[in-house]
Amino acid sequence: MLGLLSAFFSGGGLNVVNNAIDKIAENKEHANAIKREVELELLKNQKSIDTAGADIIKKEIEAGGLAAQWRPILALAFGGIVVFYTIMQAMFAFGWVSVSVAVPSELWNLMLVMIGGYTLGRSGEKMVGNLKK
Question: Where do transmembrane segments lie in this chain (predicted)?
Answer without folding.
Answer: 73-95, 107-124
